[in-house]
Write a structure and sequence with these properties.
184 residues, mainly alpha, 10 helices, 49% helix, globular, disordered C terminus
Length: 184
């Protein structure tokens, strides 16, 4: 598929991710016809610096496009970008950090990160600087840090992706952070 201006499906998908343009994304996906072709395009579409479509959508806070992308079969949710070896979850944290602090609570800024986590993004993956997404969170953003820590804990415990256990462990040794007290 080439549109009138000559853009390829890859270019159109990447532009849809940058601009949160769900109608453009839907048009491109519909033209591909099979889930295999869609997955191949989405998993292999990269910009000039190695960002996949999920990296771009997360970097720009393109929630609606990200939601559509994550609904596609066989989409890799943890691809690494070429420069920083970041996952889309790393990029989502960087996007949230770029917002003014009052916006963290407004407009569901955390929704981009939560959407990736719900789709199975692994918050334990470290980038080239050996940082996990939680390590990138602005220190003032306790809510996002808690979301990422709960997701990381849930994955470490092998829990269901839909169930996040918060503070109801019977054994202190299993907790991700322990108490300094050894008393009963």
């Amino acid at each position: 598929m080439k549109n009138i201006q000559g853009a390829t499906p890859r270019e159109l998908v990447l532009e849809a991710c940058r601009r949160n343009n769900t109608s453009l994304l839907s048009e491109v996906l519909a033209s591909l016809a099979t889930p295999e072709k869609i997955a191949d395009l989405l998993n292999n579409a990269k910009d000039g610096v190695g960002n996949h479509c999920l990296h771009l959508a997360a970097s720009y806070g393109s929630y609606e496009v990200l939601d559509t992308l994550l609904d596609q079969e066989n989409l890799e949710v943890d691809p690494l970008d070429r420069l920083e070896r970041d996952t889309p979850l790393h990029k989502a944290v960087r996007f949230i950090n770029s917002l003014p602090a009052p916006q963290w609570e407004e407009d569901a800024a955390h929704a981009v990160a939560e959407l990736l986590i719900d789709a199975g993004a692994d918050p334990r993956i470290r980038n080239k600087a050996k940082l996990k997404p939680v390590d990138l969170v602005d220190p003032r953003n306790a809510e996002l840090r808690d979301v990422l820590r709960r997701a990381e804990y849930s994955m470490m415990m092998g829990g269901d992706d839909d169930v996040v256990v918060v503070g109801s462990l019977g054994d202190e040794e299993e907790a991700p952070t322990g108490s300094a007290s050894d008393s009963d």
